[in-house]
Amino acid sequence: MDRTAPTSKLSTALSPAFIGRSPTMTSNAQVMSTGKVLLSARPSNLALFDWWASYDSASAGLFSSSSGLLSASTNFKIGIVSFESKGTSVTLAFALVFFTHFCFHLEVWETQRKTATSVFNHHRFQTFVVKTIWNKVEKGLIPVFEHASELGTEMDLKGLFQHFTFDSACILVLGHDPASLSIGLPDVAYEKEFNDAEEALLYRHILPESFWKLQRWLQVGKEKNYSKAWETLDLLIAQCISSKPRDTTSAALTWFFWLVATNPSVENKIREEITTKLHPKEDNRLHLCFSNINDQEMKKLVYLHGALCESLRLFPPVPIQHKASVQPDILPSGNKIGANTRIILAFYAMGRMETIWGKDCLEFKPERWITEQGGTKHEPSYKFITFNSRPRSCLGKDMTFIQMKIIAITTIYNYNVQVVDAHAISPCSSIVLHMKDGLKVRVTKRRV
Ligand code: HEM
């Protein structure tokens, strides 16, 4: 049976978007009655998301059609400009690093984006990325899997992928390999600090500005944790390491492996595709048989690509976006908004709305991304919003897919990954959609 259980629960708790001015409280039942938000039982840790759902009556009424919602998301150009030019970014700290996700001033952002684009598009950088990731797979991931499979011990995939992406980011940015992905998995560097900072940032998105600013001034609550976290993280920032790409990709990998491990038919199809399209040599079954595949060969893996997109749709590592209008405007839905209106786009909810993805929106269905001719079906970024839409679209999207594909083919072809029974899966409240308690698995070598 296809399983997207936590998904459906969380999706129900999130309204597609809300407008943050003069909200009118509505009951969940009212939200449900609009038909815009599907309701079912909610995990208890989702109080915050519940609050969003009940926060805004406008969210249900505002985007009353899927086209309204979608075009609204493209209309946020104004909001984005305003957001930056007013210098009210909630994530100053992240803006200081090279792989930035949020920028402070428009001019700074434009320069940063241009610089980053030229680096990301340079063929030597791309070659370096691929080489780095293969190297990490061979020298880091495989030995850890081999060790765990020999001993038959449980391991946490979430932590494993955090080590993987942390090491890769350090190599790419600093030219230094901290080698944190090694047998025994030492503590994830700065994990607590990252978690505290990410949690505080989520609250900044949704609490009235004056409230969290007062908390910051008084140095209490989550703002206190945030300040403490940054004292520590400053050290890391000084070395120009970004946390965000690390966290988003590791979160994406964790959800992907959970979905694959709990959907055996998908797992089999991925293996079949690897076998028929990459022709791994039987006498050299382990990882090395893939390390020389190039970009073109990787593109043949249409089903795997679909499975990754599907996982990123259902579990977008950046679950919400926060924008503000620079001047009064009329949204495509016809709703009027004033200047400085806060708008939250719930990517998580948008990834599983029936009006956007159809009746089977809650199913994990890689076939959704395959054309009748068997090629990859491309969806516009305002529909598949996980990497944001222009002009602030993610520059690391291609790199993310490369990294995820390399890890996926190596792991799925060579190993059986079994989720430890009774391990509860739930997302945590953060600006990055992590698995709250990690993903406990057993890895065993696969016999072909
Ligand atoms: C699954 C993985 C990832 C997801 C879901 C993701 C998602 C996003 C999203 C939603 C934004 C827009 C943020 C905003 O405007 O507020 C963004 C921006 C960005 N991302 Fe990613 N990202 C991922 C991985 C990466 C990686 C691996 C890199 C680099 C190595 C990267 C580099 C960037 C950069 C540089 C921007 C800023 C673009 C700009 O503001 O002009 N991302 N990403």
From TrEMBL:
Q: What family classification does the UniProt entry report for this protein?
A: Belongs to the cytochrome P450 family.
Recite the UniProt keywords alphabetically: Heme, Iron, Metal-binding, Oxidoreductase
Does Hydrolase count among this protein's keywords? no
The record's section on Gene3D superfamilies has: Cytochrome P450 (1.10.630.10)
> Origin, by domain of life?
Eukaryota
Q: Which PANTHER family match?
A: CYTOCHROME P450
Quote the protein name from its UniProt record.
Uncharacterized protein
Q: Name one GO molecular function term.
A: iron ion binding
Pfam families, per the entry: p450
The scientific name of the source species is Camellia sinensis
Which positions are annotated as binding heme? 394
Name the coenzymes or cofactors required. Answer: heme
